[in-house]
Amino acid sequence: MVDPAHSLENFYMTSYFDDQVRKTIGRQIRNLRIELGLSQEELAFRVGIDRTYIGRIERGIANPKASLIYRMAYELKVEPAEIYVPIDEKPD
C-alpha cells in the first residue's frame, strides 16, 4: 500500500520541478525573443497564438505543447534544443 504522506510529498516535489522547468523554458523564450527584437505580440502572430499566451509561457505559467515549441524555435531562428536549456534542479 502507498503511504499517503509519501505520495503527497512526491506530488509537491514533482509539482515544484515542473514549475522550475516551465519557468526555465519561459525565460529562455523571452531571452531569445528579446535578442531578436521581437515583441510578444509579433512572436504570437508569427506562431498563431494569442499574445497573452506568450506572456503566460514566458512567466512559466503555461506549459506549451512540443509542436508550439518547434514553431517558436523556427520563428526565433534557433533549434528547439536551444529552448530546452539545462536547469539546476533534478527530478526526484
Task: Describe the structure in your own words.
The protein has helices at 4-36, 40-47, 51-58, 66-75. Helix 2 (40-47) packs across helix 3 (51-58). The chain contains four helices and no strands. The chain is 64% helix and 0% strand. It is mostly helical. The protein is globular. It has one domain (18-82): 434 Repressor (Amino-terminal Domain) (Orthogonal Bundle), CATH 1.10.260.
Helix coverage percent? 55-70%
**What share of the residues does DSSP label as strand, in percent?**
under 5%
Broad shape: globular
Q: If classified by CATH, what would the architecture be?
A: Orthogonal Bundle
Number of strands: 0
The H/E string reads HHHH
Distance separating the two termini: 20 Å
Major β-sheet profile: none
CATH topology: 434 Repressor (Amino-terminal Domain)
Number of helices: 4
CATH homologous superfamily classification:
lambda repressor-like DNA-binding domains
Structure class: mainly alpha
Overall mean pLDDT: 87
The CATH class designation is Mainly Alpha
Poorly predicted segments: none
Instruction: Give me the Rg, rounded.
Output: 15 Å
Total number of distinct structural domains: 1
Salient structural properties:
mainly alpha; 434 Repressor (Amino-terminal Domain); 4 helices; 64% helix
